[in-house]
Here is the input.
Amino acid sequence: MSSRKILSIVSPQEGWVAKFKQEDGTTIRNPVMVWAVVQDEKGEGNSLTSFSGPSGPVDSPGDAYIEPDNEMSNFIGWERLGYDAAASAATNAELMLSHLMAQSPILSKPVFPTLNVTPKARRRIERYFKGTRLSEFVQFSADDILCWRNTGARTVEEIRSELKKLGLHLRGDQFCSDTKQ
Here is the structure.
């Protein structure tokens, strides 16, 4: 997972579970906590992964699994409870992947002219950002941007503000409740 790029992170619709085979042969279903669309290692296509947690109450973020569900050795597949259980896990994953990409058409847009920033911010982005799409740009964290030469907090806040208008955020911002936006 470390060498793949996350293109989109989306909250799951209710009812999605990841299924795992236990040592005793039983199957457990854990609710999907987040879906992630990732680009494969060669950059040739996109795939879907999820992170799930125990079916009981989650007391802290540490209760969630930190490994992608479909990379765990006992992973069976995904299922949406209340829907056709006979559908294969691959079909469910393909449907969810197309649904997520359809929900996030903004991510395929070019950074410019989509982001309406000041000339200074635009020059900083053009100098240090080598990609073209918003899906690539939102992989930067505020700390990454602050490392750019002659870039300060005002530029970061301007970028955050523009991304917020589009329903997007910089990497890490979704977990910071004290982030000014």
